[in-house]
Amino acid sequence: MKTSIYSANNFTKTLLATFFFFLVNVIHAQEISINQRSHIVLNGNVSLVVNNAAFINNGNVSTGTGTVKFTGYNDTTGSYIGGSNSTSFYNLTVDKAAYGTVLKSGADIINTLTVSTGTLYTDSNLTLKSDAAFTARLAPVGAAAYITGKANIERYIPARRAWRMLTAPLTDAGSIFNTWQNSGVYQPGLNTFVTGPNATGANGLDASPQNNVSMKTWNSATQQFNNVTNTKVAISAGNNGSADNTAYFIFVRGDRDQANFSTATCNTTTLTSNGRLQTGTQVFNVAGAPGAYTMVGNPYASPIDFSTLTKTNLVNRFYVWDPSLNMLGGYVMLDDLSNSGTYNKTVTGSSQTKDIQSGQAFLVQTKNNAAASLTFNEANKSSVNNNLMFRPASGSSQFLRINLNIVTADSSLLLADGIFAEYNDNFSEAVNQDDAAKFTNINENICFVRNGSGLAAERRPFISEIDTLFLKLWKTTPNKYQFDIVPADFAGTNIFVEDTYLDTTVPVNEFGTTAYNFTIDGNAASAHVNRFRIILKKYNVLPVTVSSVSAVLQNNNVAVEWKVENELNITKYEVQKSVTGSDFSTTGVVAATGNNNLHNTYNWTDVTAAQGTNFYRIKIYDRSGVTKYSSIVKVVTGKTVTSSMGIYPNPVTNNIINLELGNQPKGIYKMRLTNTIGQVLYSSSMNSNSGNGTLLINVPVKMSPGIYQLEVITPENKTAVETVVAE
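The structure assignment produced for this chain is given below.
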């Protein structure tokens, strides 16, 4: 029996599948045939089930958002899709154990192809379509299901000149030249240019006016990109169906219209490739060196959920290139070190999620010096079709996110880059693999700097009192910029952005977003890479802090002065003295008079100071009986023969530097503390009322063990440099 749907007198007779489930059951290789000028329409989310039959399209088929399903068990010749016209299916399902289903004519999938059981024979007639709204995906393939033959895979690219990390999710595929370069032929809206120097017909490269390289691959051995110098090679590395696809970093100008070589011109295009779909388990062996990166292409023509992949000796982290950032795109890092399933990303405005899209490539990082791999299984496939990436556009942690925006000529904001800091006692102050390295963008970059490392994400223990985040900003141009600074869960913390060029300290809203606007002008200092830093300081009730202690000669006496902060529940202060620097005894007691949690200053005079060296410290008593000590200061009595300046004690502890002055001028002393790479950690000025005594420098930045330089400019404008050792 043959079932036909036909037209008469040039009027199209339309079959409306308005019922929820439409079943066509014809046996022994019978046909559903749509004749010329006939039209079958499936309205809504209905199902057309083709049971033991062929589907012949010589007319027109509209599948709406419905599903056409091939099934059956007892036909003798196999079901097939045929006819003179291609058919566009919203969803196509193959669930036919006997003989399978054959594509004898074109079958375009708009949304989802499902192969549950049996074999789908494609014969290069299958196309997974991609446009601005949809990118078709291959759902998890059943254990008793197979796809034989080649298919065409599309990836829509919007009209934006940008770099992209892409792959052709195929094995046994054609060459780069015959696929993404469209065999060198211009067809509107299809494929693109791949350019490079020394372009010849033999190497397949397109010649560009600037001889720019537009396609690269990742070299895991050198940890760098290599230029693609020949495109007449397979776009996929192998043909055995086991993780054969290659990942590329490619600059897409639009289609192969020559006008797209102008930076002012760009249009949409769709990259196409032909090969066998990769199904089943796909294992990528990646670089085995600790901290090494490997670029991997999603092997499936489907989104995958990165959180579900099997990661052997890999950090639970990946990097992508978001083409919507800045002028040419930028890196975005996502990781989940606690394995919670929730991924943090450096650029909050990026649309990238934990779902890697069909045709998308990404970078992963190795943990230890051992074999490492990334394994994909059918169960890792995701239904989250995130086309936004292909369109323009231990207790709770504390997070501080910084987005860098370019202020354009019309005052709109262009998101350029982003970073985040996470605080939790699960993390160390040292730089390790919890901290994500910064990959350098083509245009503007921002990162944290710690111990010489550039970090896209820095992770540190919870702040006890004060912490500093050192920013590096580079590849800027004379322009207006804006930081969006977004703290989360920082109640009880004062946050400031320090601008060394403007010499300003601006408070940050700890409960919302702070927009900090700045300009890179003609002054080179405005573009200094270390212009900015973030200071975080706890302001909730803290133990009293002695912010400074000084001991200076006044005639034959020694005047001891100490300044305190956060004074609360303090009963008294003892002034203790020693002539050796180790054996202290109490020589004076001063009652606490403040206890108002503000800055307070106390004074005491030693009228029995011994000739020579005298050491002083302050012992603090609170109402609970707990005591603590200030740092030690030193003063020399008697005739001072020579001028002197030095650090005591050295090495220093607890970020406190005591600068001793002997026979020095009175007045303002300017000080700047730098590390071994020249970064300024602290700068300030202090007044000395006497040329003999100690200036206490309370550095607000955590001083890691190492060597520092303290530059001191005296009131007489003389410069001295003292070496500071931190323990």
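Interim note for the steering committee: Residues 2-121 form one domain. The first strand starts at residue 2 and ends at 5.
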